[in-house]
Structures are given as C-alpha cells and as structure tokens.
Amino acid sequence: MSEIKESELPGIGKKFTLELDSGDKLVVVIHSSGEREVFKFIQDNDEPASVTTLADEEARQIGAILSGTYFQPVIEEAQKLTMKNATMEWIKIAPDSALANKRIEELDIRKKTGVSITTIIRGESVIPNPHSGEIIKPQDTIIIIGGNDQIKNFISTFEIKHRLENDRQ
Amino acid sequence: MIVNESVLSLGISLIALFFAGFLATKVNQSLTAVFIVVGMILQNFFPVTIITEFIATLGIIFMLFMFGLEFSVGSLVNNQRKIFFNGVYDLLFNFPLGMFLGWILGYDLIQTLLFAGIIYVTSSVIVAKSIIDLKRSANPETEYILNILIFEDMFIAAFLACIVGVVNYGHIDTKGMLLVMLKTAAFFLFFIILSRTAKKIIDKVVDIEHTELFIILILSIIVLSAGAASQIGLSEAIGAFLAGLLLSETRQRHRISEAIKPFQQFSTAIFFVTFGMSIDYKHAGSLIPIGIFIFVVSSFSKVFGGYFVGKKYALSKRACLRLGFSLIPRGEFSIILAGTIAMNTNVPYPVKSLTGVYVLLSAILGSILMKESDWFVKNFFESKGKEFQPLGRHSAKD
C-alpha cells in the first residue's frame, strides 16, 4: 500500500498526497470550508492535469463509493455465503438464567458451544465486543453469533428460554 | 446634529461599499483595493467622523484578532525551520530594499522603518484567495508560499508592536528602544505562558452556551487585551492579535470565529474606507509615477527572493517563478502599518497616500501577475520546444 503524505496549508486547509503505482500523483486538499479538491498530477509534472471540486456532501458520497461501503460486488457475495450457515441471536437474560451475574470468561461459552458474544445491550448502553472480564447482568440482552448447530447447542447448554427472534428491543 | 449626520454618512459609505464590492466580485478583484477607492471618492462628499474613526479602530483590532485566531500555531511549530529559513530569506531580500527606498524618499527613521514594513509584507488574504481561485493549492510551490506568509505575518505583528511602542515613547534612543523591546517581549511572553499553562481553564471559561453572553465575553477578552496593550504603550492591534492566538487553541475556536466575523467584516470595511478618505486626492496623482517605480522595484525583489527559495527546494523553474510572483500582492497589513500611526504629512511623498497608491497597484496588478506568471515563464525563460522537458524533481515534504 502506498504511503499518504500529509501536510498543512495554513490559511487553506490540509493536503494529502498519494503516489500511485503508475507514477502519477493524486492530491486531495481539504479546505477549512469543508470543500474538497482532488488534483491529478501526471508523473513529475508540477501543475495539475485535472482538478475536481467537491462539496462536503458530495465528497462523502464519493468516499463511500471508493471505500466500497456503497456497493461491494465481491465481498457481498462472500457475506451471503457465510450468513447461510451463521445466525445472530438476540437473547434476553432472565434473573434466573445460567448466564446471569457471570463473567464471560468463566462461562467458557466459546469452548463449550462455539458461539461468540458480539454485543451486550444494557438498558440504554451498548457494549460492542465485550471484554472477557465483562459480567453479564440480569435484564441484559446479548447478541450472539454462530453456526446454526452451535446456536442450538448454546441454547440447550445454557437452558435459554427468552429468545428474541431478531427483535432488537 | 453631528450624530445624525455621521450616521447618515456611515450609511452612505456602506451602500457605496456594497455596490463597489458587488462589481469587484463580478470581476474577481480584491475587496481591499476597491474599498480604498470608495474612500478616496467619498472624501469629496463628507469628512471622516468620530463614529467612522472609532469603527475603523475597531476594524484594526478585529482584523488582528481574527488573524491570531486563524493563525496556525501547529504548523508554525511543526515546520519552524522551513518557515524560519524561507521567511528570513524573503525578509533579507525585501526589508532592506524598503529602507533604502524610504531613505531615498527622504523619510525620517520611523517613517523609513514603517515604509520598509509596508513594502515587505505580502497580503496573505489576497494571496491565499488567489491560490484557491487559481486551483494551485496542491502545487508544490504553494507550501513554501504559505510558509513565507506565516513568517511575514508573525514578523509584522511583532514589528507593529515595537514601532508603535517607539512612537508612543516619543523619540528614538537606545534606552527607549530597549524599553520597547522589553515591553513587547514581556507582553508576548505573558500571553504565551498564559496559553500554555491555563489552556484548560480558558477552554472552560469560553465554553458558554448562551449566544449573547458568549459574544459579550469574547468581545471583552478582545477589547481588554487591546486596551491592556495600549495601556503599556504598545499597539492595540497586537493585544488583539495575542488574544486571538490565545483563543485559537480552544475548542470554541470555530464558534468564536463565526461570532466575531460579522463585526470584523463590517469594521474592517470601514477602516479601509477611512484610510481611503485620508489619502490626499490631489496629491495621489503625482504619487502615481513614484508608486509605479516602487511597485516595479519591490516586485522584482519579491520575485527573485521567491525564486531562490524555490530553487533551494529544487522546484522547477515554473514553480519557482510562480512562487516569486505569488508574493507580489500587498494589502491589509501594509494599510494597517500606514494607518495606525499618525505621521508627519509634511514630506514630499506622504507615507499614507503613497501606501494607498502602492497597495492599489500591487493588489490589482499583483493578482493579475500571479495568474499570468506562466506567461512570463513561456516568454522570457523558456525557448520554444523546451516545454515538455522533464520538470525538476521535488517532494511535497522536506
């Protein structure tokens, strides 16, 4: 991956220079006003061959397209494949649950069932990627991910009664 | 009914500014130059009143405050060596020339120094705007231009503080000079220490939700700093500049800038008009030849200075010349230098009027020259067919 050079243009904004493999240079200037300019310099030329000016909103859209969040042809297919056999489950923790008031590491969920806890929803707050030392509390909702069999295994191992089928609240 | 008349004349000035400014933006001309011309014309209809004079003073204070607020301390610290080297180079090329010219014109020492500052300082407002308009912000020479501008602005701020101090002291002797330098240094140091040690406290103090109270607090900080500077015999402008620097590192910086901008734009416009009104109309005609002469000479030294800075970083010939040409426009700071100090007008070439002519020439012609620098390169520096020769190697960062 090419290195991006960053330099300040006092009174104007910030400049980012990316040397492309072709030897050309792509320079992005972010103005203090929020406007972006994209310059293309061919080889060692010191005058831009082209300039594109983008408003803040336009730049964000283009950015999303370039980074692949708008449309991801290859990766999306891969995602479907993995999701065929994987399930996410929202599980409400009852006060008498086997999971309640235990640290994630002492439950040893991954080893016993193959399932991972991706998120804990506790009232208004959300804990993504909870630490293994995190304690699961009664009334929490946990989001788990795993293969269909693993999820079944999890439910039977911990005797889960409150499954919230994709009900996020 | 002095008040009523001066309010009416202020209104007339403003509407004149609007129409002139409107036309100026249509042809993409610098507002500074146009506002001065408006002032020159309006002096035939009514005099400068107490009100306009007061607003003009505020204009300088607000301008310097905004300047401090938008001053990038970060890039000054990060690129200090580059800024220092390039800045000193530019200073050595142009400041002594200004002193020499001042001496030829028969000015006394203070006026000569002041004139050197006027000749030396490039307008960062005009140049930055032109760079953006001409789509040159990504060009290799642009960083060096901006570095030089930072140094110039910093230098002129300190210079202004010193020279106003000397004028307020009354006469020039070693003791007085030393005293002024000490005072200036102490004042700068006080603000620097304050901004370093009390950063968090300042941040909290200016974090006020209430819009009206927020503006009043910020205004009080500006005016108090300006007043304090004036109290110890320095320029009010420098107090405002340091207040700006002090607030530039707070999280409220953007909000402060938004709040003060309307005040600044209004009062600065009036400042330029007032300056234009003080230019001796009949005298200005005879000043044009000498103005042109000074413009040509000082432009040459700017271009050469800039060219050598560019050469040092191995920029191509074209880039070097663009760098040099971009330093020609003079503007707001030259006017401030000429406008803050009341001077003896009993000389063949009064500094104020000459500065007016000079700034008009360099603001208008300077931006044109900036745009057309490539034309010069093609016609004077390159023989035909040489155009596609590989241009000099350079790196964006040192």
From TrEMBL, chain A:
Q: Which Pfam families match?
A: KhtT_N, TrkA_C
* GO terms (BP aspect): potassium ion transport
- Residue ranges of domain RCK C-terminal in the record: 76-160
Query: Coiled-coil regions in this chain?
Result: none
A single MF term (Gene Ontology)? monoatomic cation transmembrane transporter activity
Q: Which InterPro entries match?
A: AAE_transporter, KhtT, KhtT-like_N, RCK_C, RCK_C_sf
Identify the SUPFAM superfamilies for this entry: TrkA C-terminal domain-like
Name-wise, this protein is: Potassium transporter TrkA
> Which lineage do the record's taxonomy fields give for this organism?
Bacteria, Pseudomonadati, Planctomycetota, Candidatus Brocadiia, Candidatus Brocadiales
TrEMBL record, chain B:
Q: Which InterPro entries does this UniProt record tie to the protein?
A: Cation/H_exchanger_TM, Na+/solute_symporter_sf
Q: What sections of the protein cross the membrane?
A: 6-24, 31-48, 54-76, 88-107, 113-132, 144-170, 176-194, 206-226, 287-309, 321-343, 349-370
Where does it live in the cell? Membrane
Is Zinc among the key words of this record? no
Gene Ontology biological process: proton transmembrane transport
In terms of PANTHER family, this protein maps to: K(+)_H(+) ANTIPORTER SUBUNIT KHTU (PTHR42751:SF4), SODIUM/HYDROGEN EXCHANGER FAMILY/TRKA DOMAIN PROTEIN (PTHR42751)
UniProt similarity note? Belongs to the monovalent cation:proton antiporter 2 (CPA2) transporter (TC 2.A.37) family.
By what name is this protein known?
A: Cation/H+ exchanger transmembrane domain-containing protein
Source organism of the structure: Candidatus Brocadia sapporoensis
The upper taxonomy is: Bacteria, Pseudomonadati, Planctomycetota, Candidatus Brocadiia, Candidatus Brocadiales
